[in-house]
Amino acid sequence: MIEYHNLNEPIYLKVKEMIINGELKPGEKIIQEKIAEQLGVSRTPLMKALLALENEFLVESIPRRGMYVKSFGEKEIFDIYICREALEGMAARLLAQSNNKQKKEQLKQCFVPFIGQPNININDYAKADEQFHSLLIKLTDNAPLDKIYFFGNIHEQVINRGLLRPPEETLDEHIKIIQAIEHGNANQAEKCAREHIEKSRILLLNH
Fold first, then answer.
1. Among 32, 97, 34, which Cα is nearest to 68's?
2. What Pfam family is a match for this entry (predicted)?
3. Using an 8 Å Cβ cutoff, are 68 and 27 in contact?
4. Burial letters 115-143, b for 16+ CB under 10 A, else e
5. Global confidence as pTM
6. Rounded CA gap, 42 and 20, in Å?
7. Which residues lie below 8 Å from residue 119, measured CB to CB, with a gap of 6+?
8. Pick among 1.10.10.10, 2.30.38.10, 3.90.1720.10, 1.10.10.1400: CATH of 10-69
């Protein structure tokens, strides 16, 4: 396995950003000369970055054809969401079992601005949604869990850009997760977190 020791390397980060934001689309062939020229770099550091992204399953190398942006099939999408369901469910359980009220308050603050609002700004809500799911994992202070989730979350961003379901459908689900965590109900917290991801998975696969 090729290891990319500096994951803050600008070339690596820029190409990853191009994949996540759709500038480089799933299934698209990566023209290295074009990207190297666009970024103002030589092909050697670009190839190193691409190999790192291949390790993250964002790029795939096809013999005698070249390198392509990874295109996710139905089975892979299913598997990614199954992993998210398990990881976020476990994170919710761990936080519910924690006595750290400050962490629980951080989660709660993600959605406080939207409670009782008849017209929710989609962009603001999308940012809050992303922050919530990221915090849910990070606040566990579980490094292996954080690392595993990181890879799955990047893939989810590539598959589904923006909100999959509207705020009027998911806000209540988020609040139920937070309330279960606040009350220390580990079983309920895990159940609500899993069901939240499961609904998005089913919708995405039937889309």
1. 32
2. GntR
3. yes
4. eeeeebeeeebeebbeebbebbbbbbebe
5. 0.79
6. 22
7. none
8. 1.10.10.10
Q: What's the rounded Cα separation, in Å, for the pair 95 and 159?
A: 28
Fold entry, domain 74-206:
Four Helix Bundle (Hemerythrin (Met), subunit A) (1.20.120)
Structure token digits, residue 121: 């700004």
CB 193 within 8 A of CB 136: yes
The single residue listed with the structure tokens 């980060």 is 13
Q: What is the dihedral of CA 135, 168, 112, 128, to 10 degrees?
A: 30
Q: 26: helix, coil or strand?
A: coil
Q: Which residue bears the tokens 């590539």?
A: 158
Q: Which amino acid belongs to residue 108?
A: K
Domain ranges, ordered by start, for the chain: 10-69, 74-206
Contact 149, 61 (CB under 8 A): no
DSSP E strand boundaries for 3-125: 59-62, 66-69
